[in-house]
Amino acid sequence: MAEPGALSMQMSSGLWNPAAVSIPNGERVQAGLVALNSPIEQGVSAQLAAGSVVLPRDAILTASVLRATVTDLVQTQTDPQSVGAEIPYGTTVFSVGLSRRFAGVTAGIATRIRTGTADFIQRTAMSIDGGVVVDRLFGTPVRVAASTFLLSPSRSREVPTLLGAADLPVYTRGTLFEARAGLAASATDGRGSEQYLYGALRYAGLEARGGIARARQFGATSDHLRLGLDMRYARYAVGIAREEEGAGLGAVYQFMLTSEFP
Asked: Could you tell me the fold of the domain covering 5-73+85-261?
């Protein structure tokens, strides 16, 4: 949703950071859905369903299921002509996490089971991830976060991603209006890295975000514009995000719907 991964809180899924979960005061349960669709040239789609419940002592229990697939992968031999059926390629990630707030610091841990299929190969791996969010670093208004994603104890079946982010308010007016700016970074061993410079504007129940992400993968560098818009009314929130892909490809879109219950 055009958020930095380590500080992604529009839906309390804890996907990128088990500590980045937040449920409005007075509510006990949050449930949400996110869908991602890419241009037909990429054929990538993903769906995320998550639910969170508030436990005693400022703890939150979260569970989620993420499914991602790639279509139109064809088999070839000595020329571009396709041979046989499409190659199945997809993955499912089941996550259960627990987070707790300690006087301005939120820490979280999550256990994940990931299954994946690539052609005729099917494998399963487990990972244990941790994360932290600090609301006020050393008493300043700077907010920082760090986490891991798919950190396998043996590192034999998963390649982990390390994420970090920091932002701060640049202008506030009571509780009605706030403008924030920040920088995020992520790196996956052997696969590349990304830096994301972003800003966010919030007015009452409306929030807009945008920024430039620079990705470095396999020796190539590319810049992507990200834009996100969320609207909250009563116990419901809806959102849409758009990311430019460049290289003649269309944009990637994300859609979000969440709701809280007492």
From this structure: Porin (2.40.160)
